[in-house]
Amino acid sequence: MAAVQGPIVIKQLAPAIGAIIEGVDLAKPMDQETQDQITEALLTYKVIFFQKQDMTPQQHRDFAKRFGELHIHPFYPNVDDAPEIIILDTHAKNIPDNDNWHTDVTCIKTPPMGSILMARMLPPCGGDTSWSCNITAYNALSAPLQKLLDGLTAFHDFRKSFPVERYGNEEKWAEAVKNTPPTVHPVVRVHPVTGKKGLFVNSGFTTRIVELTKGESDLLLEYLFAHSGRPEFTVRWRWSVGDVAFWDNRLTQHYALADYMPHRRIMNRATVLGDVPKGPLS
Ligand SMILES: O=C(O)CCC(=O)C(=O)O
Ligand SMILES: [Fe+2]
């Protein structure tokens, strides 16, 4: 059954992050007021969930396009006549994917502002996804550590999440590496809309803090990666087919649990490009 179009109802899920949005059918044409309410909810709750949705990949793309230009992933398989929609199908490679804390595609100069993920096929149980709030994680650090981090930058490298041995096709991989050289972002990001500060390092892509020695960088990153995933900064979503999660990728991370093998799980994702991350000093 398709979702009903009506007044929006918001149900907060956890103190740090996450809310369910009721009363919107994402497949239907949307007025500006509804879109603005969705944007507002995204900024407030960082990840928002829509249930019982019935979108084709084309409608998924069209909804996502309302929020900005879409990213076409160099690697993931995509829908034939909607290349902006990537297909995450664990069965295709028979290995789990995205089962680490990460922020999407921070290895490019303009990492996504948001990702919109829809569940298409699910295992009988398991396969939940968690999101964490990098603003709450930053606020929980001591003032001296916040001050140190405010002035640092870090490398983000495509190869950390996409090593050649995992994604095969050496030629295509070399081309993607050439087109995606490591990029440097501030370790603390100022959210371009809310002005809030949050950690902007993630275990998916961040390899090295530029201004520190390798030993210092390794230890500090290890601490920050572990800190960011603390349960009190998170929300965990148990999927049903037709659920859609829309997250503000600018100051969040997420983790797709791979606890359901050998069952199949298929998700579709649209990825909305963002701006160049700015730090407190940049
Ligand atoms: O499959 C999931 O639940 C999330 C996968 C993921 O990391 C993503 O779509 O960006
Ligand atoms: Fe992801």
From TrEMBL:
The cofactors required by this protein are: Fe(2+)
Pinpoint the TauD/TfdA-like domain residues. Answer: 10-271
- Superkingdom in the source lineage: Eukaryota
Q: Which UniProt keywords apply?
A: Dioxygenase, Iron, Metal-binding, Oxidoreductase
**Pfam families referenced in this protein's UniProt entry, alphabetically:** TauD
In Gene Ontology terms, what is a biological process of this protein? Answer: sulfur compound metabolic process
For whether the record's keyword set contains Chaperone, the answer is no
Q: Does the keyword Metal-binding apply?
A: yes
Q: Which GO terms describe its cellular component?
A: cytoplasm
Q: Which GO terms describe its molecular function?
A: 2-oxoglutarate-dependent dioxygenase activity; metal ion binding
Q: Which family does it belong to?
A: Belongs to the TfdA dioxygenase family.
Q: State what protein this is by name.
A: Alpha-ketoglutarate-dependent taurine dioxygenase
Supply the source organism's classification.
Answer: Eukaryota, Metazoa, Ecdysozoa, Tardigrada, Eutardigrada
